[in-house]
Design brief:
This protein is 14% helix and 37% strand. The protein contains 5 helices and 12 strands. The strands form 2 sheets. The chain has a 10-stranded antiparallel sheet. The protein has a two-stranded antiparallel sheet with strand order 6-7. The N and C termini lie far apart (56 Å).
């Protein structure tokens, strides 16, 4: 599934979908879909469907293994998410709002100085990262749909939920590995931010504490998705209402854009999907001083 986000959509206006049957083969079928509002294309995607078992009995198999410590992090977080002691579990947190739950793990391959403070509802953690090696850093989070998805809905609903969840914190990985403010540190500028993802807004509130609100870090001026590709490896083994591990890394950013790779495993350690996303990532620019006269 390869998607392009062409224009901003309007939730108050109906969307008309145009589907083209590109090809129907014995092993694969291909479709293209355009989403239109006011006569303009706001989104387009190309989808390839594979017939299950069409490769025969003898196949080539390998997959990227799930990080060995990820399951232990999940168990600790679920058991000790409200703990106040200085442990690894303390640095994890479970979101308590939105359509899905997330447990974020510390950034892998980074040099972190962690500042934590307890609030009435949850633990707030801020990381100051001094590691110079951006491309080796990996962000990881466990994620699942809130509540239970009925088995009568079939496997397709889990694929749809995974597609939605895969966008959580995706292009925001660029900001995290560069240790950027997702918003301006100035509250007066925050209301003018052009960041479209509400989850990134929540992430910023979780990470920014009074202790490092004065840090001289660049801030994001605008960050939106440009395109999003999902490869479903094991569709029948995806349960979106059970914990899935997503690991993100960014091999490149430049010219106002960023690229992120994502791997998703189920709780049993099976690699069920891989994703790629390119997004617009532009820093807030300093305004030139205005003349006094």
């Amino acid at each position: 599934m390869h998607c392009y986000f062409v224009l901003a959509g309007d939730a108050s206006i109906p969307i008309v979908y145009y589907v083209e049957r590109v090809r129907d083969g014995r092993s694969f079928i291909t479709r293209t879909v355009q989403a239109r509002q006011k006569g303009k294309c706001i989104f387009t995607t190309t989808l390839s469907f594979a017939r299950e078992g069409s490769a025969g009995k003898a196949t080539i198999n390998h997959e990227w293994e799930m990080p060995a410590d990820a399951t232990a992090h999940l168990k600790n977080a679920l058991k000790e998410q409200d703990a106040t002691s200085d442990t690894d579990a303390e640095a994890l947190r479970v979101q308590d709002s939105g359509p899905f739950e997330t447990i974020r793990l510390p950034i892998e391959n980074s040099e972190l100085k962690t500042i934590a403070r307890k609030t009435k509802r949850s633990l707030k953690v801020s990381n100051t990262d001094s590691s110079p090696t951006i491309t080796t850093k990996k962000t990881r989070q466990w994620v699942k749909a809130r509540g239970h998805i009925s088995s009568t809905s079939g496997p397709q609903i889990h694929l749809s939920a995974l597609a939605y969840m895969s966008d959580s914190y995706f292009i925001g990985t660029v900001a995290r590995v560069h240790n950027l403010w997702r918003f301006s540190s100035s509250p007066s500028k925050r209301s003018n931010s052009k960041i479209k993802d509400p989850d990134l807004a929540q992430m910023e509130d979780e990470e920014n504490t009074e202790a490092d609100s004065q840090s001289p870090r660049p801030s994001i001026g605008i960050m939106v998705s440009l395109d999003h590709t999902i490869y479903f490896h094991r569709p029948r083994e995806i349960r979106a209402d059970d914990w899935l591990l997503a690991e993100n890394e960014s091999p490149w950013s430049g010219d106002g854009r960023g690229l992120v790779f994502q791997r998703i495993w189920n709780k049993e350690g099976v690699l069920v999907a891989s994703c790629v996303q390119e997004g617009l990532v532009r820093l807030a620019q300093e305004e030139p001083p205005r003349p006094k006269l």
